[in-house]
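The record is given unchanged here:
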Amino acid sequence: MFDTFDLFIDQMRKEVKSLGARELRTPEEVDEVIKLSGTTLVFVNSTCGCAGGIARPALSLALKDSKLPDRVATVFAGQDREATDRARSYFTNQPPSSPSFALMKEGTLVRMIPRSEIEGRVPEAVARLLAETFEEFC
């Protein structure tokens, strides 16, 4: 039986997966996806009310842009800890941040949008950051 918190987490997972993001729940799944050729946007999902409530809608808006990464994946900070830790191991020279966005190209981090660039902004502003990142690297 789900408690209220589990239902809340489940809803946040479904919201991101409904956008076409592949949920990565194990370190092996993270390795498989990040090492693929091309570009991969990794969204570090979070239960953080303020920044998470901005990041998920921003992702939805950004994925309507004409230039997109080859794939979108997601890990859930605080829930799938091993997968999140593995994803973060690819985000070189970056402190842990959730929610956050990491654009990987050929398995290498090319742009990180940490929580500090998300919180306090409206989803449209964060979506513009993502769209500019896609335009530059995808």
Q: What stands out?
A: The domain at 4-137 is CATH 3.40.30.10 (Glutaredoxin). Strands lie at 22-23, 39-45, 71-76, 100-105, 108-113. The longest helix spans residues 123-137.
